[in-house]
Amino acid sequence: MYLRFNITTVFALIVLFFMEGCTPKKITIGEDRDVTVESQMVVVEEVAHDKKYQKLMGDLDYLLFTKLDSEFNRDEEWIVYNKKPIISVLDEFISNSQKIQTDIPLSLMTDEYMGLAKSLAYKANFLKKLVQNDNVSKMDKGVSILTSTCNSCHAVYSF
Fold first, then answer.
1. In this structure, is residue 15 part of a structural domain?
2. Residue 134 Rama label (left phi>0; alpha psi -120 to 50; beta)
3. Which residue in 29, 82, 120, 145 has the most C-beta neighbors within 10 A?
4. Within a domain: residue 21?
5. What radius of gyration, in Å, describes the C-alpha atoms of the chain?
């Protein structure tokens, strides 16, 4: 009898565990949007199989978190007199941020994703204008805003 009780209890716990895991959960992101875990998994799985899109996103991450970060970690005088490499990296970043608006998996064609992608391109263009106009005092804030946009998208889409 004691052994049967333990097996029954274990079986019930296993069933509850799997029922809980299969129930759609709501993830609240901000105040105005809910996304189910299942819908997120469809997006993540589709993106994981799209090698072209993965490369594009990897290039954006590399450009922002490696190349631009290293360029903006120099002193202000160097940035003003050697802005050509920074503008070149920003041009490539802008080009890729425009591609993620068109060369994307179908599951990403949502208003939310497109808004984030367009915002990324807009903010990268804004940062480029700051560099072109030698507005060094606002460049750090521009990079921070650009990074924040990337992080917002990654938080929503988990890739």
1. no
2. left
3. 120
4. no
5. 22
User: For position 56, what pLDDT does the model report?
Assistant: 83
Tell me the pTM: 0.66
Number of domains in the chain: 1
Selected residue with higher pLDDT from 11 and 145: 145
Contact assessment for residue 145 and residue 59, using Cβ atoms and an 8 Å cutoff: no
Helix or strand holding residue 149 (H, E): helix 136-157
The predicted-structure confidence for 61-105, as pLDDT tens digits, reads as follows 888 888 888 888 887 788 878 888 889 999 999 999 999 888 887
Q: Is the residue at 57 inside a domain?
A: yes
Query: Do the domain assignments include residue 18?
Result: no
Which residues does 131 contact at the CB level (< 8 Å), separation at least 6? 79, 83, 86, 87, 90, 139
Residue 57: exposed, middle, or buried by beta-carbon count in 10 A (0-12, 13-18, 19+)?
Answer: buried
Residue 94 domain boundaries: 37-157
77-80-81 Cα angle (round to 5): 85
